[in-house]
């Protein structure tokens, strides 16, 4: 038996390793040429300390409290030299990937589809080469090289992990480098290079109600998250906590992938969603901004985990709204994006 361990480094790079039954995370990492921080490897110094965000494990009792206190252990802190996983795990490693010789993954693929869904969004599908490995956490992003240039652009996956075909929802930016390539040059069968995955914006274990807030093509990571949740539901591993998405756009015809959201609603009984249009001339039943439609019913008096992805003004407005309302969610994960840059640091 083997478990998949996601190591999330301080610089946003994620490296996946396999951990054998009874093997410590530190030993598994070294076996796969990832040099996690360590000194004693006996649970004495605390150099290998990290934070396990997801998964179950055994730490034993052979480490010193000076290396890991009871309070730290209760918060999910771990010593990778002592940690023996019993499920798949996600671990935050508080150093840069470069210091651990954890190279960023690179894969190649073939364009399977490129479709302009609206004036401001494009859907891109890439079939990975046979045998290509591209594990990621739902919500993360990857760099895609722009053919014919030395540049890349960064996009969140809209497909769930483990698929041979990956999809992306991309904003169509006027005169944008990648947008121009996709709309004017890209054809099915062309080759693309991808580097990643990256990012600290990803779905954590669901233990309470979840509120997802998407702006425009910020819908992409939520499609990935919801696909994984739906798959778990179909595998008999679904939870009971409600998941609500508020998806905001500027104009009526900017609303895309609503058929996919309807399909996810059928597959995932705990999921609901609402769409919002900013344009005052719209006939849409919900107009304005997402903050105008965050009712008490979906806020659960702050007993929620909030995930937010959208352009900087939207992210700032939502943060201000929570502050003004005096609501402090149990956890708040957000990602800002701008048209020509990688998604911003998630918090």
Report on the structure:
With 347 residues, the protein is an alpha/beta fold. It has three domains: 2-100, Beta-grasp domain (Ubiquitin-like (UB roll), Roll); 106-198, Translation factors (Elongation Factor Tu (Ef-tu), domain 3), CATH 2.40.30; 210-336, Nucleotide-binding domain of ferredoxin-NADP reductase (FNR) module (Rossmann fold, 3-Layer(aba) Sandwich). It is built from seven helices and 18 strands. The chain has helices spanning 25-31, 70-74, 177-184, 220-234, 258-267, 296-299, 312-325; strands at 2-9, 14-20, 49-54, 57-58, 77-79, 84-85, 89-93, 106-118, 121-128, 141-145, 152-156, 165-171, 191-198, 210-215, 243-249, 271-277, 305-310, 331-336. A six-stranded antiparallel sheet has the order 11-10-13-8-9-12, with helices on one face. The model has no long low-confidence stretch (mean pLDDT 93).
């Amino acid at each position: 038996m083997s478990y998949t361990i996601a190591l999330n480094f301080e610089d946003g790079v994620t490296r996946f390793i396999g951990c054998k039954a009874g093997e410590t995370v530190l030993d598994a990492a070294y076996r796969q040429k990832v040099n996690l921080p360590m000194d004693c490897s006996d649970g004495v110094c605390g150099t290998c300390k990290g934070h396990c965000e997801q998964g179950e494990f055994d730490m034993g009792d052979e480490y010193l409290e000076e290396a890991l206190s009871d309070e730290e252990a209760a918060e999910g802190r771990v010593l990778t030299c002592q940690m023996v996983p019993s499920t798949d795990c996600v671990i935050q490693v508080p150093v840069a990937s470069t210091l651990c010789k954890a190279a960023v993954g690179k894969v190649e693929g073939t364009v399977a589809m490129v479709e302009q869904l609206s004036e401001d969004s494009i859907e891109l599908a890439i079939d990975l080469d046979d045998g290509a490995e591209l594990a990621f956490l739902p919500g993360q992003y990857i760099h895609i090289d722009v053919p014919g240039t030395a540049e890349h652009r960064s996009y969140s996956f809209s497909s769930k992990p483990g698929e041979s075909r990956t999809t992306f929802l991309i904003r169509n930016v006027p005169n944008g480098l990648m947008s121009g390539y996709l709309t004017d040059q890209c054809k099915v069968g062309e080759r693309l290079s991808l580097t990643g995955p990256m990012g600290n914006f990803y779905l954590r274990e669901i233990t309470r109600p979840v509120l997802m807030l998407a702006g425009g093509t910020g819908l992409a990571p939520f499609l990935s998250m919801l696909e994984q949740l739906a798959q778990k539901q179909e595998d008999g591993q679904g939870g009971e906590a409600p998941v609500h998405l508020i998806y905001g756009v500027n104009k009526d015809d900017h609303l895309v992938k609503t058929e996919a959201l309807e399909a996810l609603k059928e597959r995932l009984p705990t999921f609901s969603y609402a769409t919002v249009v900013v344009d005052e001339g719209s006939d849409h039943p919900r107009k304005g901004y997402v903050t105008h439609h965050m009712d008490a019913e979906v806020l659960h008096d702050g007993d929620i985990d909030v995930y937010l992805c959208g352009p900087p003004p939207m992210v700032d407005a939502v943060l201000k709204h929570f502050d003004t309302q005096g609501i402090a969610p149990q956890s708040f994960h957000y990602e800002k994006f701008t048209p020509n840059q990688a998604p911003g640091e998630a918090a």
